[in-house]
Structure formats: C-alpha cells, structure tokens
TrEMBL record:
High-level lineage: Bacteria, Pseudomonadati, Pseudomonadota, Gammaproteobacteria, Chromatiales
GO CC terms of this entry: plasma membrane
GO BP: regulation of ubiquinone biosynthetic process; ubiquinone biosynthetic process
Originating species: Marichromatium purpuratum 984
Boundaries of every ABC1 atypical kinase-like domain copy: 93-339
Secretion signal span: none
Swiss-Prot/TrEMBL keywords: ATP-binding, Cell inner membrane, Cell membrane, Kinase, Membrane, Nucleotide-binding, Transferase, Transmembrane, Transmembrane helix, Ubiquinone, Ubiquinone biosynthesis
Record's protein name: Probable protein kinase UbiB
C-alpha cells in the first residue's frame, strides 16, 4: 500500500518525467496518467523547445530524482547486456551532486559509534570532508600514535532515504513489468532487486572493511598493488578508519609520466592484477573506476573503496577462462558448447544456432588489429547474444564484465598500445595448466581430503544401501518372471555391488593410510604413489557404482 508521503513522491516523479519529456514512460507504466493533462495545460510545456536525445533525458531525470536514483543509474549503466549502447554510455556519465554534511554532525556520529569523545582516539580530526558522496563522507585524521588515517562516515538517515526510494523503484518496476511490453524484457523487478542488494551491502562499512582486509592479505608484499590497512578497533557498521594513502590519481596521466613511471608496465600490471584477482584469488575489486585507483612513483597501484567485490564459482572461473581462450582462437563452436556445459544457457539450446549467433557478433571484433580487441566488449556482445538464448546472466558475471571494461579503459588510457591479449593469454594458459594439470589435481585432492575423511564413517552405510538396493531388485526379479532385460539389470546390479564393496574398502583403507600422517611405516612402505593410486581408483569405482544404482 502506498502512503501519503509515497504518493506525493510518486507525484513528483511523475512531474520530473514530464518535465524531461519522458511522457512515454508515464503512458507505458500508467503512472498517474490522468495527471499528465495538468502539465499539458501549462504554457511552459509547449515552450520547452526541442528536447535533447532520449538517453540524455533519462540521465537528467535520474539526476533530478536524487542520489539514490543516480546511483541506480550508475549501476544500470553497467548492464550492457540489457541496455542499448547509447543509453548505457549516457548513464555512465551520471554524477552525484550531494552537498556534504557538517563536520560537527560527522563528529557526533563518530562519537556515538565509538562511545567516547573523538579526542580519546584521535590527535587531530579535520571537520572539512576530504570527499563527500551519496552514501558516505570521508574525513582526514591522525591517530594518537601519529599514524595518518581517513575516517569514512555514513550519511545520517541514509538508510531511511534508501528504503523509501527503493520502495518507489519497486512500485515503478512493477508497473513497468505489468503494463510495458518492452519493459518486461528489461526485467525491471530483478534489476531493482539486485540494486537493493548492492546498495545495502554498501551501507555496511564493516563489510567494506572486511573486504579491504581480505584483499590486503592477498596482496601483502606485492610490488604491483597496495591495499591500505583497516583499523578494526575503530571500525563500526557506520564508521570505518583506514590508513591514509598518498598517490597520484590514475586519471592524471601527465603527472604519473612526469614521475618517470613506465606506462607500458603500468598498463600491463593493471591487466595482470585483474586476472590474478579473478583467477588466482577468486576475489576481485569490482568498483575499479579511476576515482578509486592511485599510483605511487614506484609504479605500484593503490586501490581504495571496497564496497563492491566479486567472486566466481570454480566452475564459472574455468568456463570463463576457456571461453576467452576459445574466443581468441575463433573456436565459436567451443564457446557455444561451453555455455551449454556450464549450464549458463538451458540444456536444450541448439549448439549450432548458438554458434552461428556468436560468430555473427564476434567476427566484426576480429576486424580490428589484435592489440585493439576488447575482452569487455566481447563479453558484452556475448551476453547480449546469450540472453536471446535464455541465458540468465548472473550478477557476478555482470560485475566481472563491468570490471573488465573498466580495466581495459584504464589500461589503454595509460598505454594506448597495450595488447591485452598478449598480456593475459600466457597468464590464463598457465592458470588452466596448473588447475587441470597433475599438480593442480593433487592440490585440489589435498584440499578435499579433510571433507572426504569427514565422510568416511558414512561409507559403510552407503555401501549397505547399495547392497540392499541390489537385494531388493534381486527379490523383485525373483518374485516376477525374470525377463531377459531384468536379468541384464541383475547382472549389472551384482557387478555394481561388487564394485561398490571393493571401492569402499579400498577407499577406506586409502583414507586411513593417508590419515596416519607422514613418516608412519605403513605410509612409507606403501609409497605415496601407490596410496594415491588406490585412493583415486577407490573413489572412481565407488562413484561409478553409486551412479549406476
Ligand atoms: N585511504 C584513503 N586515503 C586517502 N584518501 C582516501 C582514502 N579513502 C578514501 N579517500 C578519498 O575519499 C574519496 C571517497 O572515498 P570512497 O571512494 O571510499 O568513498 P565512496 O563514498 O564510496 O565514494 P564514491 O561513491 O565516489 O566511490 C576517494 O576518492 C579519495 O579521494
């Protein structure tokens, strides 16, 4: 139910839409349709002159509706799979212009969060914010021990504003989905739901701090990337204290050059950092816009703002790597097959049709010299095509696509001749080899040993179930006239039972020997290779039997 306050706000949205010449949105969503006559009666409506292009009108509308809508537009701009290119480009230009809140108010919020006066913790606190955005504001400060820090504080009352605006967005999305045939294709409710998740994540600074700490651990001691330290003692859900960093914003290319930094190396490092985060660490910074990246004179990057991070499932990681490798070999059949194998598109998808659609969007990309080919662009086109084949693009893949576009844009701005493929290919091929090679398999088996050992006590029960299933079938077959087919089933089941028992025995023995620990006489005498062999064949035998039963 819409309350009076929301009704008023909807009325305002209606007004803003009309003022910006988006009458068709009102007509399409049935939003206060009758009221449009009011505006048609104002002379201003008829005198407004020629309207700017449609994408510019959408951008203006979102800016007029306030910071939460602006942020929504910024996030929407990354949904290249959903939006036409011109609209996505225009939305990417959205800027939030919110006045900062007072230093006194910031101080009061911090003191309430810490439960003590600021002076107990800080030597100095600058009431003038260093930066102010729609959700939070950043102040510089110095800890008692002399370390320079920044204090990030959430805007007061921001959660309530977000809840109200989200409520309106859901209302609009429902109207669009119900009445607007074109709107349904854009899945407005799903898009707003994703936005809701992202924005609420950003409201928890403790979560952002945890992301920062995790990234910092992954890049500890690296000469390529530095992540500032979080001061956990003074971090709360609405206040985060972090080491202050000094670097040149990555957009100041001239200044970076003047410091003697190798631009080629910088561009390549950007690509390597991205691929390392996605493939080695499976934890990537997913808000890589230039405002969040700085460069030290040594050529090391520094990144900040860890509100949005991404991870992929191990399967998605592999499929992604294979997709990129297959794409650059122009093996479109493989790209299509991978989409079906990974479950990204429904199982019944016609591989040949999908292959041909992928070829159609990919071939023009190869028109360009290799050094100019964009991975991000390829993913955009691929996802747009896959959507026609009912691919549900998962939010994590959208995040990845967006980050890739950012990284490419950045890399080429720093070093226009950057050959992304030559930089990334060896990295990905090495990763695939390590993952699928013997050492990768051994490593993953080692990682799984504990969970397998944990399940070892269940094995006798599982073997018992397999046997009793066999026994049931046997009795069933005896009680009826045993047809030829049933006899074949019997024979298969008895083979399975033998395999299951054999497999389970070998498996249990293998696990026990492994758990005896290194140096034990049994392990030494059996030899690690033999144990591994028994162990793997045990798993194989048991799994194949279990699958057949
Ligand atoms: N550790 C830091 N050291 C120095 N400056 C910082 C640090 N963290 C943030 N800043 C400054 O504050 C600005 C805003 O910080 P941050 O990006 O974390 O906030 P935000 O609210 O998420 O902003 P936006 O939405 O614009 O990304 C940065 O662009 C940077 O100038």
């Amino acid at each position: 139910m819409i309350g009076p306050r929301q009704a008023l706000r909807l009325f305002r949205i209606n007004w803003v839409l009309l003022r910006n010449g988006l009458d068709e949105v009102i007509l399409a969503t049935h939003l206060f349709r009758p009221l449009r006559w009011l505006i048609y009666l104002t002379p201003w409506y008829w005198l407004r002159g020629e309207l700017p292009p449609y994408p510019a009108r959408v951008r203006q509308t979102l800016e007029d509706l306030g910071p939460i809508f602006v942020k929504f537009g910024q996030i929407l701009s990354t949904r290249r799979d959903l939006l036409p290119d011109d609209l996505a480009v225009e939305l990417a230009r959205l800027q939030d212009r919110v006045p900062p809140f007072g230093g006194d108010q910031a101080r009061a919020l911090i003191e309430r969060a810490w439960g003590c006066p600021i002076e107990d913790v800080l030597d100095q606190f600058d009431p003038e914010p260093l930066a102010s955005a729609s959700i939070a504001q950043v102040h510089t400060a110095r800890l008692k021990d002399g370390r320079e820090v920044v204090v990030k504080v959430l805007r007061p009352g921001i959660e309530r504003t977000i809840r109200q605006d989200l409520g309106l967005m859901f209302t609009l999305a429902q109207l669009a989905e119900r009445y607007w045939p074109d709107g349904r294709r854009l899945r407005p409710i799903e898009v707003v739901r994703e936005y809701e998740k992202t924005i609420f994540d950003e409201l928890d600074l403790q979560r952002e701090a945890a992301n920062a700490s995790h990234l910092r651990r992954n890049w500890q001691g690296s000469e390529m990337l530095y992540i500032p330290e979080v001061f956990w003692d003074w971090t709360r859900p609405n206040v985060m204290v972090m080491e202050r960093i000094y670097g040149t914003p990555v957009g100041n290319v001239e200044e970076i050059k003047a410091q003697g930094v190798s631009m080629k190396q910088l561009g390549e490092r950007g690509v390597e950092i991205f691929f390392t985060q996605v493939f080695r660490d499976n934890f990537f910074h997913a808000d890589m816009h230039p405002g969040n990246i700085f460069v030290e004179p040594s050529g090391r990057y520094i990144s900040i703002d860890f509100g949005i991070v991404g991870t992929l499932t191990t399967e998605d990681q592999r499929y992604l790597a294979e997709n990129l490798l297959a794409f650059f070999e122009r093996d479109y059949r493989r790209v299509a097959e991978l989409h079906v194998e990974s479950g990204w598109v429904p199982p019944g998808t016609r591989v040949d049709e999908f292959e041909s659609a992928i070829r159609t969007v990919s071939e023009p990309i190869f028109e360009k010299p290799l050094a100019e080919i964009s991975f991000g662009h390829f993913l955009v086109r691929l996802f747009q095509t896959a959507r026609r084949f009912d691919m549900e693009i998962q939010p994590q893949l959208v995040l990845l696509e967006k980050t890739l576009l950012n990284i490419e844009g950045l890399g080429r701005q720093l070093y226009p001749e950057l050959d992304l493929w030559s930089t990334a290919k060896p990295f990905m091929e090495r990763w695939m080899k390590e993952r699928l090679g013997v050492s990768g398999l051994a490593e993953r088996t080692k990682q799984n040993v504990l969970s397998i050992a944990d399940q070892t006590p269940e094995l006798p029960l599982m073997a018992y179930r397999i046997l009793s299933s066999y026994d049931r079938r046997l009795r069933l077959a005896e009680s009826t006239h045993v047809a030829d087919a049933e006899r074949a089933t019997q024979a298969r089941a008895s083979g399975n039972a033998i395999r299951a028992i054999g497999g389970a025995t070998v498996f249990v023995c293998g696990t026990l020997v492994l758990l005896l620990g290194p140096g034990h006489w049994l392990q030494e005498s059996a030899g690690a290779a033999l144990v591994a062999l028994c162990y793997l064949s045990g798993i194989w035998l048991f799994a194949s039997a279990a699958r057949r039963v």
